[in-house]
Design brief:
By secondary structure, the protein is mainly alpha-helical. Helices cover about 55% and strands about 10% of the residues. It is built from 9 helices and 6 strands, in the order αβαβαβαβααββααα. The strands form 2 sheets. Strands 1-3-2 form a 3-stranded antiparallel sheet. Strands 4-6-5 form a 3-stranded antiparallel sheet. Strand 5 and strand 6 form a beta hairpin. Helix 1 crosses helix 4, helix 5 packs across helix 7 and helix 7 runs antiparallel to helix 8. The longest helix has 18 residues.
């Protein structure tokens, strides 16, 4: 069972019913036969656990009637559901603003950018507004192995800053390529400009 448009609703239903029962299991009386079959298919992928004989016996005593079938999410199934709720879809193009520019990033650049946006709450010079959302909504052209984002000038400058940090602690190739293709490279301010920039960065918006 690989059609995620069908997988996620089954996981969602198991999660909701399991939460409602208090014991975590979804019983045969709460799931139609086709849904039970779908859940059984997901068990082969370690996303769903089917109740064994002892579990069904305990559940039968608990609910006061015979339980012939029961299922619940495995930890893998739970995490798949959580991730699936927010994962970017391949057919979702990132929102293009009026001043946006399409930027294509190599996988190594995209990996560095994800690290940068993921540290937003810890950085004194955080990513530009909306950059993290653009990263989450980015689509990948697998033919040319490039990630496509639509970025404002401020976001492009912020990406350059992220690649500058990456270059200081690892490879400068990502920053150099970004500069060649989009004429964007970060150069830290010095002297009075540095004091102004750091003061602005530390001033709450």
């Amino acid at each position: 069972m690989r059609n995620w448009e069908k997988v996620l609703p089954v996981l969602e239903a198991l999660y909701e019913r399991g939460q409602a029962t208090g014991h975590g299991w979804t019983l045969d009386t709460e799931f139609l036969l086709p849904h039970q079959q779908h859940a059984g298919a997901l068990a082969s992928q370690s996303l769903v656990e089917l109740a064994g004989r002892e579990d069904r016996a305990e559940l039968s005593v608990l609910v006061g009637q015979p339980v012939r079938w029961a299922a619940r999410l495995t930890p893998h199934g739970h995490d798949t559901l959580i991730y699936g709720r927010i994962r970017p879809r391949a057919d979702q193009a990132p929102h293009k603003t009026a001043t946006g520019q399409m930027v294509e990033l190599m996988p190594s650049q995209m990996a560095a950018l994800r690290v940068f946006t993921g540290l937003a709450g810890q950085l004194q010079v955080p990513p530009a507004d909306g950059l993290a959302e653009q990263v989450r909504a980015a689509s990948c052209d697998h033919g040319i192995k490039r990630w496509r984002l639509h970025l404002t000038p401020e976001q492009i400058e912020s990406v350059a800053y992220g690649f500058w940090l990456h270059g200081l602690t690892g490879s400068a190739a990502e920053a150099n390529r970004f500069n060649r293709e989009y004429d964007a490279i970060y150069r830290p301010p010095t002297g009075g400009a540095y004091r102004q920039a750091t003061a602005a960065a530390r001033t709450p918006s």
